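User: I'm putting together notes for a lab meeting next week and I want to include a structural view of one of the chains we've been expressing. I don't have a solved structure, so I'd like a prediction I can at least talk through. The sequence is below, exactly as it appears in our construct file.
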Amino acid sequence: MQIIKVRLPDGRTVSPSDWTSSPLWSSVEIAADANLQPLPAFSYGPGGEVPGSVGPRQGNEIDTNMQGSGSILAENEELMLFGLQIDLFQMFSDLDDFFTGGEAWAPSPPHVSATNCQRVLRSTVVEMRIATTKAYIQMGLGFFPAAQGVSMVLGAALNIEAAGADNAPFIGTNGNVSVGSGREFGTPYSVNPGEQFSVTLKFPFGGVVEPLVAGSAGSLLDFGDDTDARILARVYTIGPRRRPVA
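Assistant: Thanks for the context. Below is the predicted structure for the 246-residue chain, given as structure tokens.
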């Protein structure tokens, strides 16, 4: 037997087949800058400008699947937010420049070095707003582990003893690859069709900087000589989503 329609207590009729677990996602890019502006995810659709990017560049379907111009949920969609997951990737414009003058143990992109990863987690606050009324969520980025990706398996050529401690990869991630490591909200949040919705990365120290060292005004993110390098943060919504039906 298949359930075709369900009548909700408020009188609305919904079809379970219209709902899916596939997330909305949106990406922003974090630069080595001591004066970073807030980076609003879900603020653009494919073809829109990716916040924080060089250029800025136009986003495509790997950057976001948000419909329309962003910031407002499409009229034919609906979200039940059980959580957020944020994945971090290293982006570069010149691999030679990335390693020249950078930390000797910096892993090859898209891996993020453990120190760069920890610096981002320490310095970044995630704020989620629905209908612009208030910030429903204000927490450090590390509160939203990605819970996805691949396990690191290092061969003999990348082993510390084989490569030497100065050249061994030193990789950081936001959480681990187990789906069970994702964190859920205590109660789910609803985003109704046509309602404003944003998840913004903010930098209370001004950027990814060292706030306790006198005279430390520069960014701590180490991208070597590649001034156009970025850390891409991709935000996923976790929970049922009413798929577009028209």
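A couple of points you could mention at the meeting. The chain has one domain: 16-242. The CA atoms of residues 40 and 200 lie 4 Å apart.

User: Perfect, that's what I needed.
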